Predict the 3D structure of the following.
Amino acid sequence: MATLKSLTERELEILQLLSDGLQNKEIARMLAITENTVESHLRHLYTKLEVGNRTQASRCYLQGHGTSASDALCVLAVQV
């Protein structure tokens, strides 16, 4: 699996917001970009991280920032 270091600054920013539980529309509004642009960034970061969805991407982000797997699952459970 690739590391967070392979992501662009914008992809990392989007991943952080995604991990905070924001939806694409909210991310787009916060960053003053279109939802299509958010989706494009997500597709690229999914490929780079070798994951298939936002939950897996969020898990990579949380684990990459020293969050344990169980803590990451708790955070993700709250988002659902």
Q: What stands out?
A: Residues 55 and 76 are 7 Å apart (CA to CA). The chain is about 70% helix and 0% strand. The helical segments are 9-19, 24-31, 35-49, 54-64, 69-79. The first helix runs from residue 9 to 19.
